[in-house]
Each structure stands twice: as structure tokens, then as C-alpha cells.
Automatic annotation (TrEMBL):
Listed SUPFAM superfamilies: Fumarate reductase respiratory complex transmembrane subunits
GO CC annotation, single: membrane
Species lineage: Bacteria, Pseudomonadati, Pseudomonadota, Alphaproteobacteria, Hyphomicrobiales
Subunit structure: Part of an enzyme complex containing four subunits: a flavoprotein, an iron-sulfur protein, plus two membrane-anchoring proteins, SdhC and SdhD.
Organism in which the protein naturally occurs: Enhydrobacter aerosaccus
Record keyword Membrane present: yes
Stated role: Membrane-anchoring subunit of succinate dehydrogenase (SDH).
Protein's UniProt name: Succinate dehydrogenase hydrophobic membrane anchor subunit
Predominant location category: membrane
Amino acid sequence: MVDRRTPLARARGLGSAKDGLGHWWAQRLTAVALIPLVVWFAISLVMLSGADYATVRAWIGSPLVMVLLILTIGIGMHHGQLGLQVVVEDYTEGAWRLTLIVLVKFIAVLFGLSAIVAILRIGFGG
């Protein structure tokens, strides 16, 4: 059967094209924010490669390092969640779509909070 509707008629009811702009911007901004954070983290890991446990623990205990690590984790988890949400939206349908989107968000929050709690416990000597 040939679909004789116009492109506009086929597109009606499929949602607004402007809904994804905020998502797109958030993904780009988190990517830009991650560039200096990941570079800093990689350089720090190289510099600490031969360090003992006490040195690494003291490094994590620095207030600036704790803030930068928490930012890296938080922004990285949000960026990853945004990217996985796009993949889920593009390749799934129906109830699976909503279920997987909620699951991805839940896992990102769970992993992010777990990592942040671990950083704070190490940093504050817990």
C-alpha cells in the first residue's frame, strides 16, 4: 500500500521538533565541561602512579581535589545518562523505551552518588 500523505501529514502527531534542544545543549555543555576535568584527572593519575596509599588518600583529602573529583563524577554520569537516553530513544519502542530510560537514569544516579560518597568518606578520613 502506497502512503499518499504529504510529509507534513506524516509528521503530525509525532511530537514537537523543539523538545530535544535542551537535551542536545545539555549533552554538549557536559562534554565541554568534561574536557578540562578529564585532562586534569588523567594527569593526576599519571603523577600519582607510583604513590603509596597514604599519599593518594591525602591527595583525595584536599578540598580542591574533592570538589574536582565530585564534579568529574557528577558531570560524567549526567553526560553518560544523556547519551544512553538518546540510544534508548532511537532503538527501542513502547513500554521498553520508558522502562529503559528510567533504569538508565536510576543507575546513573546510583553510581554517581556511590562514587561521591566514597570520595567524601576517603577525603574526610572515614
